[in-house]
Amino acid sequence: MRGRADFPESPLIREAVDKKQLELCAAPDFSAYAQKIDAGEASAIAVALEYGCGVLMDDKAGRKMATTAAVSVIGTVGVLVLAKRKKLVLSVKPQLEKLSASGYFLSAEIIAAALAASGE
After folding, report:
1. Mean pLDDT for the stretch of residues 52-79
2. Any residues with CB less than 8 A from the CB of 27 and at least 6 apart, and which?
3. What sign has the CA pseudo-torsion 56, 58, 59, 60?
4. What does the buried/exposed string (b/e) look like for 68-105 if buried means 16 or more CB atoms within 10 Å of the residue's CB?
5. Regarding predicted confidence, which is higher, 39 or 95?
6. Residues forming beta bridges with residue 42, ordered by sequence position
7. Lowest CB count within 10 Å: 78, 95, 96, 119, which one?
8. pLDDT tens digits for 83-115?
9. Confidence check: pLDDT of 71 > 90
10. H/E element holding 1?
11. How far is CA 91 from CA 11, 81, 115, in A?
């Protein structure tokens, strides 16, 4: 894996692979999913099914497809709530504000649920 020059994270991914923190895998057939959702989400679901694991996914259609395929799903906001519960972050609210400020859409309901779930 040489990486792509237009992806600034390529050297970090290469380093994680070299340190055995990430494992490269062959791309599974995700054509059954790619007809209805984005190829990225489709391939994540296919890999999750192959490895028997869950996915981190925010795309609504992708989350629905993963759930239908019996793949556990967590989103970015869910990761933040878990991080707060494990005391890895002090507060979820500033993180949600940063996400919103960067253009990441979060509904008022999602924000309220995340704050309630994290005790804020």
Report:
1. 94
2. 43, 46
3. positive
4. eeebebebbbbebbeebeeeebeebeebbeebeeeeee
5. 95
6. none
7. 119
8. 999 999 999 999 999 999 999 999 999 999 999
9. yes
10. none
11. 30, 9, 9
**The two three-digit tokens of residue 91, written as one number:** 């507060």
Please tell me the total number of residues recorded for the chain in this structure: 120
pTM for this entry: 0.71
Q: Report the amino acid identity of residue 73.
A: V
Single-letter amino acid code for the residue at 59: D
Q: Read off the tokens for 101.
A: 């400020």
Question: Any idea what DSSP says for residue 103?
Answer: T
Query: Residue 17 corresponds to which tokens in the numbers above?
Result: 């692979």
- DSSP state letters, 23-58: ---PPPP-HHHHTTS-HHHHHHHHHHHHHT--EE--
What six digits make up the tokens of 26? 């062959």
